């Protein structure tokens, strides 16, 4: 198998899931087993929660319409087989006892079906004791109507309350940057939460790199995923996202970026997927926001602009989100972290020899 031709092809994420859209460079899932649609229908509840609102509303309306129509047909059959629709039995002075009062056409059957399922009870139509099958049908429709309402209300509530909507206020920087921090090359990106009153509890950040890999036996693994060690400030545990944070990955000997220089990254084929997970304080639900960076979205020799400042007038810190994506250039070696480490060791060795 040959590697993909385009180095800008996004392997995992569709940026429609993040803050920026670039559909031309994002791939889609295609194909799958022939019974894929049947698999989705087997998990109907999750499917209806995941689909777009217009389809959910359509299914919501059709479920009731089909139920009303189906039971209307049953009521019409009951009335027809019992003789309630005969012209002589429809006369007020005929003395005939129908299964359902005031049923004289299919339209009236449909209206009675609607009234029965939703217990509207206008008082014009009612089931009599004449037909046991009518009593059984009324019980069946009442139970079925309650089931449909419970199912559809659950879908609507789950769709409105799902934590995916919380990710709309979780931000990732448009670009990742590579620059030196404390003398070591680091890959950095910025994350932030725009909500002021409802913060993420026990928030954590992860980063994974996806790139092709060839084994010693000649097997081509694509995509191949490896974890990137990241930290925020001076700790690796859960972060307190009260203001935007810069997430740092130190490019050391254990990093897959260790041998890549500024020129190498341009021609490499990989994708760095970043995930921000946490519990929403107001709802207690776990939410996850995702984004990713292609080689063309990594700026070598840049650093993020500070966006937190102290206001003497308000006596508090202010976050300027208009600077969230801004970077500025800094002097950064264009060689790889491996070459920089080797050069630093050689320079240190020469310095120690001269002054020994």
Walkthrough of the structure:
The chain is α+β, with helices and mostly antiparallel strands. 31% of the residues lie in helices and 24% in strands. It contains 7 helices and 14 strands. It has helices spanning 36-42, 44-50, 53-82, 106-117, 132-161, 262-267, 337-354; strands at 170-172, 176-181, 184-193, 200-214, 220-228, 231-232, 245-250, 271-280, 286-293, 298-300, 302-304, 308-311, 316-319, 327-329. Strands 1, 2, 3, 6, 7 and 10 form a 6-stranded mixed β-sheet that branches. A hairpin with a 2-residue loop joins strand 2 (176-181) and strand 3 (184-193). The longest helix is centred in the first third of the chain and has 30 residues, at 53-82. Residues 1-8 and 14-29 have low confidence and may be disordered.
Quick structural overview:
31% of the residues lie in helices and 24% in strands.
What share of residues is helical? 25-40%
* Largest beta-sheet characterization: 6 strands, mixed
Strand content: 15-25%
Topology as a string of helices (H) and strands (E):
HHHHHEEEEEEEHEEEEEEEH
Mean pLDDT: 82
Shape type: elongated
């Amino acid at each position: 198998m040959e590697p993909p031709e385009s180095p800008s092809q996004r392997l995992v994420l569709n940026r429609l899931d993040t803050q920026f859209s670039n559909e031309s460079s994002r791939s889609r899932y295609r194909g799958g087993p022939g019974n894929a649609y049947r698999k989705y229908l087997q998990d109907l509840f999750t499917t209806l929660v995941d689909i777009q609102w217009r389809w959910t509303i359509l299914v919501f309306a059709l479920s009731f319409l089909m139920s009303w129509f189906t039971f209307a047909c049953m009521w019409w059959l009951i009335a027809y087989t019992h003789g309630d629709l005969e012209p002589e039995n429809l006369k007020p002075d005929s003395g005939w006892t129908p299964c359902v009062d005031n049923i004289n056409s299919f339209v009236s059957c449909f209206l009675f079906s609607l009234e029965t399922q939703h217990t509207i009870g206008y008082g014009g139509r009612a089931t009599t004791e004449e037909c046991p099958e009518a009593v059984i049908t009324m019980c069946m429709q009442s139970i079925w109507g309650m089931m449909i309402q419970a199912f559809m209300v659950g879908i609507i509530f789950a769709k409105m309350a799902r934590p995916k909507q919380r990710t709309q206020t979780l931000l990732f920087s448009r670009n990742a940057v590579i620059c030196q921090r404390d003398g070591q090359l680091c890959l950095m990106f910025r994350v932030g939460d725009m909500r002021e009153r409802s913060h993420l509890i026990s928030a954590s950040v992860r980063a994974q790199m996806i790139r092709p890999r060839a084994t010693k036996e000649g097997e081509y693994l694509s995509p191949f995923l490896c974890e990137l060690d990241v930290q925020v400030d001076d700790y690796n545990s859960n972060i307190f996202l009260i203001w935007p944070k810069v997430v740092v990955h130190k490019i050391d000997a254990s990093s897959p970026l260790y041998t890549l220089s500024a020129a190498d990254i341009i021609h490499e084929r990989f994708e760095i997927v970043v995930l921000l997970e946490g519990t929403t304080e107001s709802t207690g639900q776990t939410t996850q926001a995702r984004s990713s960076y292609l080689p063309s979205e990594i700026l070598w020799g840049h650093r993020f602009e500070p966006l937190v400042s102290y206001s003497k007038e308000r006596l508090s810190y202010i976050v300027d989100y208009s600077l969230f994506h801004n970077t500025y250039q800094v002097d950064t070696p264009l060689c790889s972290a491996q070459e920089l480490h080797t050069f630093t060791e050689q320079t240190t060795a020469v310095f120690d020899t001269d002054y020994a």
